[in-house]
Amino acid sequence: MPQIVKRRQLVLLATALAVALPGFAIAQAKTKVAAIYTVPFEQQWVSRLHKALKAAEARGEIEYKATENVSNADYERVMREYATAGNTLIVGEAFAVEAAARKVAKDFPKVSFLMGSSGKVQEPNFSVFDNYIQEPAYLSGMIAGGVTKSNKIGMVGGFPIPEVNRLMNAFMAGAKETNPKVEFSVSFINSWFDPPKAKEAAFAMIDKGADVMYAERFGVSDAAKEKGKLAIGNVINTQDKYPDTVVSSALWNMEPSIDRAIKLVKEGKFKAEDYGPYSMMKHKGSELAPLGTFEKKVPADIVAKMKAKEKDILDGKFTVKVDDSQPKSTTK
Fold it and tell me: Which residue of 21, 38, 150, 186 has the fewest C-beta atoms within 10 A of its own C-beta?
């Protein structure tokens, strides 16, 4: 009998606290977050979202569920399932499913959506983001221009969309700064995840003289490693897997964007806005990976120039141009 009375007292206390302190009840429940990806978790771009969300889950801030390898045709259905399952924040990539994703957001005005997109925000609940990491891409280009001996750089990308083009163009501009003689071979494999195809494209460029490869896709660094050439990474740092191949990488940190979205959802203040700027260096949304195993191998004057440019970017004295046009090969 005393146990029943004690239990009732605890229930009454919790109820009283919830009434007196509205935030008390909210604090007890974790924010439910879902993510939908069209490629595997390990794919570069998606891995950065997944990493940031898993970190929030590990801190106990959110309850996180995610689905990988969702086809474009199935994307809307999965979005709706997550929206009806009580998730208050849905993260994903709307690039190939813009119309469907925006329709779902319209049908669920109380759910917050943070989607990778080439389009604009949609009131009241559809925020967009992009990997605005053109700054470290420019810096990585400066390194590439300084380490090539043949003055030929190969570049293999997924699709020629703004998100990819701007990074390639920034990389090319950086390489030109430290080496005006450099030439580029540019190719797109029309896939976000096809390592064998990317590797094949890289082999063709290496056979034509490229001694540094811009690895926008998985598979390119493998080709460089097999042929004894160098590579520059993108979005993630793979130097631990390719210690003698990957010189450096332009890293994307999605934590500033994800953490901001979660905080606003918790506070009931989430609104439609462009999260793109939170991927820039001043917000710690991107950075150039440490040279690591190549610290003593990259010419000191090139490192000095790169570090000076990095400081100018952070100090607001230099702005990396955002060029979304499709990059072209310059090799003769």
Answer: 21
